[in-house]
């Protein structure tokens, strides 16, 4: 009787520990991704008048092609990182009857791409140059930095040989 009670208590305790391990903090949970990954850089490459083939090259195959709306492609992407809230992004592309891109709608809009925003260029103007007042101070004479700078300044450009064109008219 005593052994049965001890065995039952042990099994109950082991079961509770196993159940607690399912939601124990620090346990790795897998990121769940579904759909097409769509980035701002992909949207920035789209131009009105592009064919379906060109759009498919940039964006990939659409997740949804509706038979009732043959001129519309839908891209949906959702991710649920490690058990947290699910995030979802949508993008719809509209084509004309002659298979040319005429519009888009969704969570992304054409504009400055993330790379251009980081580099500080928007494609229409040259990047801002550093003002002379903010120039770096000259390296100390005799220092390693000064020696490297001198070697860089004295380096000469070497022309790169270009290959001869292939003969397109063999005799």
UniProtKB/TrEMBL annotation:
Domain (Outer membrane protein assembly factor BamE): residue spans on this chain: 35-99
Sequence segments annotated as region (Disordered): 119-171
Domain of life: Bacteria
Subcellular location: Cell outer membrane
Keyword annotations: Cell outer membrane, Lipoprotein, Membrane, Palmitate, Signal
Keyword Membrane tagged: yes
Pfam families named in the record: BamE
Membrane-protein topology: Lipid-anchor
Bias type Low complexity, positions: 124-137
Chain segments annotated as coiled-coil in the UniProt record: none
Family per similarity comment: Belongs to the BamE family.
Quaternary context: Part of the Bam complex.
Summary of the function given for this chain in its UniProt record: Part of the outer membrane protein assembly complex, which is involved in assembly and insertion of beta-barrel proteins into the outer membrane.
Entry protein name: Outer membrane protein assembly factor BamE
Name of the gene this protein is made from: bamE
């Amino acid at each position: 009787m005593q052994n049965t009670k001890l065995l039952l208590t042990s099994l109950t305790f082991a079961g509770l520990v196993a159940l607690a391990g399912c939601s124990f903090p620090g346990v790795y949970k897998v990121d769940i991704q579904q759909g097409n990954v769509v980035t701002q850089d992909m949207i920035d490459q789209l131009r009105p008048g592009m064919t379906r083939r060109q759009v498919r090259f940039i964006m990939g195959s659409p997740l949804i092609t509706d038979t009732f709306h043959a001129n519309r492609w839908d891209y949906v992407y959702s991710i649920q990182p490690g058990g947290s809230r699910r995030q979802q992004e949508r993008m719809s592309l509209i084509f004309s009857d002659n298979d040319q891109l005429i519009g888009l709608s969704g969570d992304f809009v054409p504009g400055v791409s993330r790379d251009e925003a980081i580099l500080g260029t928007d494609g229409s103007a040259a990047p801002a140059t550093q003002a002379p007042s903010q120039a770096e101070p000259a390296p100390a004479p005799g220092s390693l930095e000064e020696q490297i700078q001198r070697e860089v300044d004295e380096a000469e450009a070497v022309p790169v040989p270009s290959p001869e064109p292939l003969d397109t008219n063999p005799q």
